[in-house]
Amino acid sequence: MAASSTSQVISLYRILLRESYKFPSYNYRTYAVRRVRDAFRVNKNVDDPKTVERLVLEGRQSLALIQRQVAVGDMFQAQKTVVE
C-alpha cells in the first residue's frame, strides 16, 4: 500500500472515530466506535489497491451516515441514562 494511501486510511479512521464519539446516546456511541474499530481491524492486512480504494469509499459513505445520524440525534435528544 502506498504511503499516501496509508495516510488517507489513517485519516479516515481518526475522523470516523471522532464523529462516532459525537453520538448523544451512549448505546449508539459505543456501537459506532466498536464497529469502526472492528472494521478497520478486520481489513488491516488488505494490500490490493482496488480493494483498499473500495474500502475507503465505503468508509466515506459510513462517515456521511454517521454525520447524518449525529445531526438527527442532536435534534431529538432523549434523557441521559445512568451510564452517562
Distance between the termini: 40 Å
Order of helices and strands: HHH
Flag low-confidence runs. none
- Mean of residue pLDDT? 90
Q: Tell me the fraction of residues in β-strands, as a range.
A: under 5%
- Fraction of helical residues: over 70%
Describe the sheet with the most strands.
none
Content-based structural category: mainly alpha
Overall number of strands: 0
Please tell me about this protein's structure.
With 84 residues, the protein is mainly alpha-helical. Helix content is 74%, strand content 0%. The chain is built from 3 helices and no strands. It has helices spanning 3-20, 26-42, 49-75.
List keywords for this structure.
single chain, 3 helices, 84 residues, mainly alpha, elongated
Note the topology.
Blueprint: H1 3-20, H2 26-42, H3 49-75
Helix pairs in contact: 1-2, 1-3
Question: Gist?
Answer:
The protein has 84 residues and is mainly α. The chain has 3 helices and no strands.
